[in-house]
Amino acid sequence: MASISEKSCTLLVQNDKPVSPNEIKEALEGSDPVAKISAMKKACLAILNGEQLPGLFITIVRYVLPSEDHAVQKLLLLYLEAIEKTDSSGKLLPEMILICQNLRNNLQHPNEYLRGVTLRFLCRIKEEEILEPLVPSVLTCLDHRHSYVRRNAVLAINTIYKLPKGELMLQPLAVRYLFEHLEQLSTWGDILQMA
Fold first, then answer.
1. How far apart are alpha carbons 156 and 22 in whole angstroms?
2. How far apart are CA 46 and CA 55, in angstroms?
3. Is the pTM of this model over 0.85?
C-alpha cells in the first residue's frame, strides 16, 4: 500500500495554522452554514496535510450530508476525495457505504450544478464498490436537459469503464440504454456519439 506521500492527489493546499478537531466538530454540528463551510475547509486542509481526525467522518455524515447548501456539498465532495476509503488490506471501509445514498441523491437532484459536480467527483473515485450502485443514476444523467450534466456523465462513464471491472458494470446497462434511445442517436451531440 502506498504511503500518504506516495498517493496521487488532485488537490494540494498548504495550511500553517494548527487545527483543533473539537473546534471543527462543534462548527459542523451547528446550524450556521458559514461556520460549516469554514469547518469543512479546515477539515479538508487537515486531511490533505496528513492529520488524523478520528470520529469526524460520523459527524460529517450526521450534520453535513443533509445540508442543502451547495458550497457545503462541494466541500463535502472534496473531503470525501481526500479521506482514505480503504483499509490496509485494500477493502472498502464499511462507513463508506453511508455516502453512496447521498451520492445517488445528488445524481438525482433537480439542481444541475450539484449533479455535475457529483459526476466530476465520481471521475476521481477508483473504488468499484462505491461506483457500482451509482451506475444506473449516472446513466440517467445522459438524458439531462443541461449539457454540463450530460458532459460530466460521459466523463464519469468513461472513468468507470476504465476500471478493472468497469466494462462488466456498464455493459448490460449501456447496451439497454442505447437500444432504448437508438432513434435519438443522430440528434445527440458529438461528445455523446463518441462515447
1. 36
2. 14
3. no
Report residue 35 as a C-alpha cell: 461556520
- Spatial contact of 7 and 81, defined as CB atoms under 8 Å apart: no
As a whole number of angstroms, the distance between CA 51 and CA 59 comes to 17
Phi, psi of 86 (to 5 degrees): -125, 160
For the chain, how are helix, strand and coil distributed in percent, rounded to 5? 70, 0, 30
Q: What are phi and psi of 87, to 5 degrees?
A: -85, -175
Neighbours of 56 (CB within 10 A): 20
Burial 125-139 (b: 16+ CB within 10 A, else e): beeeebbbebbebbb
The candidate with the shortest Cα–Cα distance to 167, out of 179, 157, 155, is 157
**Mind listing the pLDDT tens digit of every residue in the chain (195 residues)?**
445 445 566 666 665 677 788 899 999 999 888 999 999 999 988 888 888 887 899 999 899 988 888 899 999 999 999 898 888 898 988 888 888 888 999 999 999 999 999 999 999 998 889 999 999 999 899 889 999 999 999 999 989 988 888 888 877 777 777 778 777 777 776 656 555
